[in-house]
Specification:
Number of helices: 6
Distance between the termini: 38 Å
Radius of gyration: 18 Å
Shape: globular
Largest sheet: 8 strands, mixed
Length: about 220
């Protein structure tokens, strides 16, 4: 399984990551959402270099041009609610892709113990397609795994791209164990070393859903 960590090579992603993590910049929800979108756009562009294309004849006002268009059938999947602006970045670039949505949430049994539940899924068939699962925070990997299993009720994809803004090292290892290594690529803005007792990424950036849309009750 290939893991692409954008923090290894400084780029615009580094600037957006710095703003996403900054407690002062985080006060601007619009900017926070836009930075999630921007990282999604950049990852979409980088993923676009790895997929298959086909040559077609395109008629111009003057002649016929040989052009390359995407051959693979793409499905963009995201996990509510923090994933919505991140997903939009991918959709802005892969605007012909189909879309899938999964609702996964933590239900706490005790202060530091929780189970992850899937409450909702809306997805096309994914048989033989390339699925990009976008979720900004990859803390333990449990939500990503269960969301992937929910998507498998709609078929078996040919390729899988797991995309996150921030991941813990533990979650990366978990994804390596639970996703098919021969057809999965992980794309992440940064990998942090730790998760705390509440399974939050440290240093991380906080609750992406709350920062994007306001604190939930």
């Amino acid at each position: 399984m290939k893991v692409i960590d954008f923090s290894k090579t400084p780029s615009l992603v580094s600037q957006y990551m710095a703003e996403l993590r900054d407690v002062n910049v985080q006060k601007d929800m619009l900017r926070f959402r836009r930075n999630l979108e921007r990282i999604g756009e950049i990852m979409a562009y980088e993923i676009s270099k790895t997929i298959e294309y086909e040559t077609v004849d395109i008629t111009t006002p003057l002649d016929v041009a040989k052009c390359q268009i995407i051959k693979e059938k793409l499905v963009l999947a995201t996990i509510f609610r923090a994933g919505i602006p991140f997903h939009k970045g991918f959709l802005d670039y892969f605007d012909h892709a189909q879309n899938a949505f999964v609702s996964a949430y933590r239900k706490y049994r005790e202060k530091e113990n929780f189970d992850v539940f899937i409450e909702y899924i809306a997805s096309p068939r994914i048989d033989g397609k390339t699925v990009i699962i976008a979720d900004p925070m990859l803390a333990t990997g449990s939500s990503m795994e269960l969301s992937y299993k929910a998507l498998l009720t709609k078929g078996t994809p040919d390729k899988i791209h797991v995309a996150s803004v921030v991941a813990s090292q533990a979650a990366i290892e978990y994804v390596k164990k639970t996703f098919p290594a021969d057809k999965t690529t992980v794309w992440v803005g940064a990998i942090d070393d730790k998760i705390n007792s509440h399974s939050y990424i440290v240093p991380g950036l906080g609750d992406a859903g709350d920062l994007a849309y306001g604190v939930k009750e």
